[in-house]
């Protein structure tokens, strides 16, 4: 129950998307990389549609987390009233829904004719047109980067001003002020962690989107595109590693689950922070 917060709910959305990438997409991409796709043309299209869905949800969740951090640091007095569990759940549902609609639009033609780009038995190839690729670059790459960069610039400016204010009043720190400082450090740490996640996202996604922009059309399933898709999937591998490294409560939670302590009576009340 201690972890049932609005921020952690957004993290859960991103974690579910990253988990599905590792559970479903990576094994199928490995199978495809062997040059032997035996699941049929329809499953080939579903495979790429689901890839677009989970990657889009992961990016969308990252944007929502940056908005959450922005409000928490820049408008802390209004955070509890503006960012409620109901609103966060609604945003998550909209994120998943929009991602599904976007994926359906991108692959609308191959949904109607799954074998449109299949040239030989055992291959799984889907071509993303120029318009669809351009929309994908804007929505899944340039747009999120721009939004997060603007929010982080504002967060950085506020964090610097608050740090100066804290140092100027360090001589008259009270217990209440000490708790406020601790809370603010926690918010800034969360923002810094998301910044690292963003840098990893840029490093993993740049090759694919830069190639898509230069080529105009992208043949998903070709050997060169599979390598770049692997990089995008690796981003979903790095995300949980980053959070495990920076947050002790994540490690405690994992230990709590794998040692089956979560099944013990009263486990929901355990302190993990």
From TrEMBL:
Gene Ontology CC terms: plasma membrane
A Pfam family (short name) is 7tm_1
Give the record's keywords alphabetically: Cell membrane, G-protein coupled receptor, Membrane, Receptor, Transducer, Transmembrane, Transmembrane helix
Residues passing through the membrane, by range: 9-28, 48-67, 88-107, 134-157, 194-215, 227-250
Q: Reply yes or no: does the keyword Protease apply.
A: no
Top-rank taxon of the source lineage equals Eukaryota
Membrane association type: Multi-pass membrane protein
Where the record annotates domain G-protein coupled receptors family 1 profile, the positions are 1-243
Q: What is this protein called?
A: Trace amine-associated receptor 13c-like
Q: Which organism is it from?
A: Solea senegalensis (Senegalese sole)
């Amino acid at each position: 129950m201690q972890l049932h917060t609005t921020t952690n709910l957004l993290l859960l959305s991103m974690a579910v998307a990253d988990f599905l990438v590792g559970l479903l997409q990576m094994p199928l991409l490995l199978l495809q990389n062997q040059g032997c796709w035996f699941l049929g043309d329809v499953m080939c299209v579903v495979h790429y549609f689901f890839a677009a869905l989970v990657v889009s949800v992961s990016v969308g969740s990252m944007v929502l987390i940056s908005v959450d951090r922005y409000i928490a640091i820049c408008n802390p007095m209004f955070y509890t009233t503006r960012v409620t569990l109901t609103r966060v759940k609604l945003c998550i549902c909209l994120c998943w829904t929009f991602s599904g609609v976007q994926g359906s639009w991108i692959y609308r033609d191959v949904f109607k004719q799954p074998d449109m780009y299949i040239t030989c038995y055992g291959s799984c190839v889907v071509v993303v047109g120029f318009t669809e690729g351009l929309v994908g670059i804007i929505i899944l790459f340039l747009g999120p980067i721009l939004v997060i960069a603007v929010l982080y610039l504002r967060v950085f400016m506020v964090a610097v001003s608050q740090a100066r204010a804290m140092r100027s009043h360090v001589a008259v720190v009270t217990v209440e002020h000490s708790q406020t400082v601790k809370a603010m450090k926690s918010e800034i740490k969360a923002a810094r962690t998301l910044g690292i996640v963003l840098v990893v996202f840029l490093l993993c996604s740049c090759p694919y989107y830069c190639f898509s922009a230069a080529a105009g059309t992208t043949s998903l399933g070709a050997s060169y595109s599979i390598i770049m898709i692997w990089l995008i999937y690796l981003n979903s591998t790095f995300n949980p590693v980053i959070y495990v490294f920076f947050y002790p409560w994540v490690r405690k939670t994992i230990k709590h689950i794998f040692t089956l302590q979560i099944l013990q009576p009263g486990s929901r009340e355990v302190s993990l922070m």
